[in-house]
């Protein structure tokens, strides 16, 4: 067996936060008029400069990325209220929530088949939408449960529960390091806090989101395939991340979220099922961006591989055989590209490091220490270049994207 064939069989791709997919693809936020709470729900994450959000479109935005208030259509947030007096009984169809049912509560949110008994003043303190909804529930013809007025909510119970637990102090948020939350919970907090205009929760939830789907390469490298110190994530969660970025106009989230979507396979066509039985899918425009982005990522991976293996030894080279070895490594690389154009060498995971591949190669083609160090330095430069151009590859514009090559 030739050395080239042996190394092609032996070399394994680096541990990646992006799984290797099949190459085939199956088919404003208003500022609340309520004064801010002097005792916030929890201590916020220390602000990082890379957590800025840029709003796009015709909606105006403040410096912290909060879209200024538009007129609220209450019909979008709740079902039509009944015209006749009704007293609903708790039975097998309507059940009280085990955690969010306070006997001295004075308002009930009926979310499909789940009832939450809460405090009117607490909810209106944090949300202008709840304030408006409760104002509509005052006529004498309102429904009641145990003589408590009922407001109908159309959201999935699980999503609303996540928000209410935070507002009622049953869930510490933001979470502390190493006490990671599931991405489904974070996504629900982003959606619900955005919909009900809970500014404090929304700001903190977006900080968590941007700590993983970041605009900074160093922050990206510090995380792993399954998340970071605050968040647990799975590859298909990238679909929901793209939709959250679109919902909140968080453009800086899109490059990495779309990049991770490029690594997916059947999920792009089938979508991902949520806890309420609905399916999370990408919009057609984002599927098109992913198709074009994959082409750009393959090109970037190919350029990167050839750049790392170019047959030019280090200026401090101590072995005359290094130049020949580098030529043979480049030849092996080109053979691999010819046999498998979209594989481990030139795949969609253009941000992944080549360091483990380099270590496998130098076991078969011994290089001096300066030349080995040079290969690792080239690897870093290649990844910096991919990161610099990632928004362009993904077809999005980001004003606050950090260029790791800038001096």
Automatic annotation (TrEMBL):
In its UniProt entry, what is this protein called? BTB domain-containing protein
List every stretch annotated Disordered: 1-64
Q: What domain of life does the UniProt record list for this protein's source?
A: Eukaryota
Q: Where is the composition biased (Low complexity)?
A: 52-63
**Taxonomy of the source species:** Eukaryota, Fungi, Dikarya, Basidiomycota, Agaricomycotina
């Amino acid at each position: 067996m030739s050395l080239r064939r042996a190394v092609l069989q032996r070399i394994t791709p680096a541990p990646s936060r992006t799984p290797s997919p099949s190459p085939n693809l199956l088919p404003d936020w208003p500022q609340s008029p309520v004064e801010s709470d002097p005792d916030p729900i929890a201590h916020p994450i220390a602000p990082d400069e890379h957590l800025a959000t840029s709003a796009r479109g015709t909606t105006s935005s403040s410096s912290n990325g909060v879209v200024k208030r538009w007129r609220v259509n209450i019909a979008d947030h709740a079902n039509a209220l009944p015209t006749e007096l009704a007293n609903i009984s708790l039975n097998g169809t309507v059940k009280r929530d085990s955690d969010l049912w306070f006997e001295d509560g004075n308002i009930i949110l009926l979310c499909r088949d789940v009832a939450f008994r809460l405090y009117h003043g607490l909810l209106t303190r944090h949300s202008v939408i709840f304030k408006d909804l409760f104002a509509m529930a005052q006529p004498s013809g309102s429904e009641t449960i145990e003589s408590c007025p009922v407001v109908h909510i159309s959201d999935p119970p699980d999503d609303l529960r996540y928000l209410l637990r935070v507002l009622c102090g049953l869930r510490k948020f933001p979470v502390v390091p190493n006490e990671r939350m599931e991405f489904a919970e974070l996504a629900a907090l982003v959606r619900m806090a955005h919909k009900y205009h809970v500014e404090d929760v929304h700001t903190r939830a977006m900080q968590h989101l941007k700590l993983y789907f970041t605009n900074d390469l160093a922050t990206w490298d510090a995380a792993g395939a399954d998340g970071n110190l605050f968040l647990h994530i799975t590859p298909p969660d990238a679909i929901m991340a793209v939709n959250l970025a679109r919902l909140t106009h968080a453009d800086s989230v899109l490059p990495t979220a779309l990049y991770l979507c490029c690594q997916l396979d059947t999920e792009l066509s089938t979508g991902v099922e949520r806890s309420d039985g609905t399916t999370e899918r990408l919009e057609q425009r984002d599927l098109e961006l992913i198709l074009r982005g994959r082409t750009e990522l393959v090109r970037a991976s190919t350029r990167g591989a050839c750049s790392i293996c170019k047959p030019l030894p280090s200026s401090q080279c101590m072995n005359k055989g290094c130049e020949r070895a580098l030529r043979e490594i480049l030849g092996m690389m080109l053979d691999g590209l010819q046999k498998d154009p979209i594989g481990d060498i030139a795949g969609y995971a253009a941000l992944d490091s080549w360091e483990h591949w380099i270590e496998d190669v130098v076991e078969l083609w011994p290089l001096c220490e300066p030349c080995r160090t040079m290969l690792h330095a080239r690897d870093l430069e290649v990844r910096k270049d991919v990161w610099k151009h990632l928004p362009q590859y993904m077809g999005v514009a980001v004003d606050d994207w950090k260029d790791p090559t800038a001096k």
